[in-house]
Amino acid sequence: MEHLKIASDNYVAFTFFIGTMAMMAASVFFFFEIGNTAKKWRQSVLVSGLITFIAAVHYYYMRGYNLHTGDSPTFFRYVDWILTVPLMCVEFFLITKKAGAKIGLLWKLIAASLVMLVTGYLGETIYRDRSVFWGVMSGIAYFYIVYLIWVGEVAELAKNAGPQVAKAVRVLAWFVLVGWAVYPLGYILGTPGGLFGIQLVSDPAAAVRSMDIVYNIADAINKIGFGLVIYSLSRSEEA
Ligand SMILES: *C/C=C(C)/C=C/C=C(C)/C=C/C1=C(C)CCCC1(C)C
User: Fold this and answer.
1) Which of 57, 133, 141, 239 is the most exposed place for a label (fewest CB within 10 A)?
2) From ligand 1's centre to the CA of 211, what distance in Å?
3) Which atom in ligand 1 lies closest to the alpha carbon of residue 51?
4) pTM above 0.85?
5) CA atoms of 231 and 87, how far apart (whole Å)
């Protein structure tokens, strides 16, 4: 295989590369720590590792794809999200299960995240000319997830799950409200509809590049940070 050089001002390729390494390192960390984790938190730490591991494999692929074609790897980006975002829903379910979370809650979170991602994908690909409409549809599903976690069932369960779990759910809820809100910003930057018709970056190629950089940074923060919150919950309960 030919070796392509990453130009020093190619921030897209750079963030794909760093993203790959960060996801790999995080996965090794979470997997190795499972053995040092109290039994009741092992599954949660394992899922943290699975999330970053799935992302590491996709990032390795996306890094190569972007380097060789110069294009945005939209399809594999969404395959990654469709696997990892439901696993983040599983994390919410696992840590509130001891407080009585029912499997129905997990399905609600997963269904909403699938609607959020499928509509976002349609707006970025097949229906790019109607990206604002599909972005709004996706946003509605996103706010439903925020609702469930901040005031709905997840919040109610967290109240009765003890102080450590309540604290972890609060931090994770901030990840979903602030960390996840970075994604629609990437979408607004990279799709032709912009922000209800307002284009933030006018050159289409630069717009797509800025979208990839925003997505790559958001992924690193959200996937690794999310996992570390679960990890520190597993330690605090142990003490
Ligand atoms: C690890 C990957 C994560 C946490 C991905 C999260 C993705 C989102 C929260 C995406 C949300 C979107 C909207 C709310 C509207 C525009 C379309 C999306 C799909 C970018």
Assistant:
1) 239
2) 12
3) 1
4) yes
5) 15
